[in-house]
Specification:
Blueprint: E1 6-7, E2 14-24, E3 28-38, E4 49-63, E5 69-78, E6 89-92
Antiparallel strand pairs: 1-2, 2-3, 3-4, 4-5, 5-6
Length: 103
């Protein structure tokens, strides 16, 4: 499964859309898309979303007990402008369940 969007923030203040994959193998995936980041000004519930172009990579696969595989790491890099409070490169180190979820 090659997702076109990924929501990985529990509070919804950042998510990725428009994902297009240029490389997809058992060991990793590479693509581009847009990051939607809430500026949380004056606070998150009243903040505004801004869109930033990104490069994305999925990596460190693991095999699930049901025989399927999932990537366990995601990194994204802002390729142009970026939010002031976020580093240009960000790595998320949690199981992503991008494909079939591991049981």
């Amino acid at each position: 499964m090659r997702p076109t969007s990924i929501a990985f923030c529990g509070d919804g203040n950042i998510y990725l859309t428009g994902l297009k994959w240029s490389h997809w193998t058992a060991s990793g995936a590479v693509g581009t898309g847009q990051a939607h980041q809430n500026d949380c000004i004056p606070f998150c519930a009243m903040g505004h979303y801004h869109v930033y172009p990104i490069g994305i990579e999925l990596f460190r696969p693991r095999e699930c007990s049901n025989g399927f595989q999932e990537y366990t790491r995601l990194s994204y890099r802002f390729v142009d402008k970026k939010p002031a409070d976020i580093p240009a490169l960000h790595v998320i180190n949690v199981p992503l369940a991008v494909g079939t979820r591991c049981p």
